[in-house]
Amino acid sequence: MSKVTMTVNGRKMAAEVEGRTLLSGFLREGLELTGTHVGCDTSQCGACVVLVNGQAVKSCTAFAADLEGAEVTTVEGMANPDGSLGNIQQAFQDYHGLQCGYCTPGMVMSTAALLADNPKPTEEEVRHYLEGNICRCTGYQNIVRAVMAASGQDVGALAAE
């Protein structure tokens, strides 16, 4: 066991973790932040994406003990201070960028990382960036629309699928 201290969604957290504890498990079981989903345990689906020091990370591939001092943001941390949906979350709701919702937390977090790096991505850039996130329900068009809307761009001109 080792002690790890990190800031999660703006709050400093300290806990004892086993060396093999994945960040996804630490968040879900240790901190009860269950918005981070684990879909595959093989880093293929992207449902577990969180931001670590501002970068999109598949939390099923990172050991919690290795993140001493890190700044971690989960989908719960994307809400506004008053608890209402943040800009990206609201865009996903407004543009129906979800169906079953299982992939949504990872999509939202990947979108946050994309927009931090590229505030006005093209449709092609959005599709390329989200290649590491699998959705088995939506066909992606509405997810792309949601990302474009969250970036403040016109979604009416997007190609229909």
UniProtKB/TrEMBL annotation:
SUPFAM superfamilies: 2Fe-2S ferredoxin-like, CO dehydrogenase ISP C-domain like. Coiled coil: none annotated. It comes from the Bacteria. Keywords: 2Fe-2S, Iron, Iron-sulfur, Metal-binding, Oxidoreductase. InterPro entries: 2Fe-2S-bd, 2Fe-2S-bd_dom_sf, 2Fe-2S_ferredoxin-like_sf, 2Fe-2S_ferredoxin-type, Beta-grasp_dom_sf, Diverse_Oxidoreductases. GO terms for molecular function: 2 iron, 2 sulfur cluster binding; carbon-monoxide oxygenase activity; metal ion binding. Its EC number is 1.2.5.3. Pfam families: Fer2, Fer2_2. Residues 2-78 form the 2Fe-2S ferredoxin-type domain. This is Carbon monoxide dehydrogenase small chain.
